């Protein structure tokens, strides 16, 4: 596909990867096998798609831009392409079965909602290799008691092993974004690799604890624990959410009672 015939659309957050060295580096990280079930989110003009097709891969493409959808549907290798013309945030990944691999240079304006959208499907996923804003990658892999550590860190680290990989400068794209990018790999954790707790309860306590980041837990979680809860857990209520480990959040979730007005979708 010729980039000169398609103008990047701001409303789709399109920044097309053009740096051949970066593209080759991503393909090495992906290391695709002939039998892999690869789903690419936002194939764009094919920076990654075309080399994979040249290697004989069969791909599923999720693309919202109608012009690009039509281009891929007319591609000479269309017999090895399944095109899903849909907003990825509305895609039910259950339809793809198990052991699929995700690949994508994600629009930065949907990256965090998409990561949360994938959580219920983690068990069916083999791995994911994403290009994200570097700031988001830093948050994903952040350790407790650091400025990048937050709700995204805790919830994604409960479900996935994550590794920050290749850093990508703005000039690797056309048009160049205003931020640095980076690759991150997500590998679902097996049940025995996760602390024991209810993921729904964990999500609710983490959202509440980080709702006022600068305040102490005794303020952000006021009225949500039994009177003797803090002593029983051995957690100092004067700590802030960003200092708690995943394991400590799981402990909290076991005795957490969400307030009545707490949003169900938090």
From TrEMBL:
A Pfam cross-reference name: RrnaAD
Cell location = Cytoplasm
Q: Which PROSITE patterns match?
A: RRNA_A_DIMETH, SAM_RNA_A_N6_MT
Q: Which InterPro entries match?
A: KsgA/Erm (IPR001737), rRNA_Ade_diMease-like_C (IPR023165), rRNA_Ade_Mease_Trfase_CS (IPR020596), rRNA_Ade_methylase_Trfase_N (IPR020598), rRNA_adenine_dimethylase (IPR011530), SAM-dependent_MTases_sf (IPR029063)
Report the GO terms under cellular component: cytosol
Q: Which GO terms label this protein's molecular function in UniProt?
A: 16S rRNA (adenine(1518)-N(6)/adenine(1519)-N(6))-dimethyltransferase activity; RNA binding
List the keywords (alphabetical). Answer: Cytoplasm, Methyltransferase, RNA-binding, rRNA processing, S-adenosyl-L-methionine, Transferase
Question: Known catalysed reaction(s)?
Answer: adenosine(1518)/adenosine(1519) in 16S rRNA + 4 S-adenosyl-L-methionine = N(6)-dimethyladenosine(1518)/N(6)-dimethyladenosine(1519) in 16S rRNA + 4 S-adenosyl-L-homocysteine + 4 H(+)
Which positions in this protein are listed as binding S-adenosyl-L-methionine? 15, 17, 42, 63, 87, 105
Q: What does this protein do?
A: Specifically dimethylates two adjacent adenosines (A1518 and A1519) in the loop of a conserved hairpin near the 3'-end of 16S rRNA in the 30S particle. May play a critical role in biogenesis of 30S subunits.
What protein does this entry describe?
Answer: Ribosomal RNA small subunit methyltransferase A
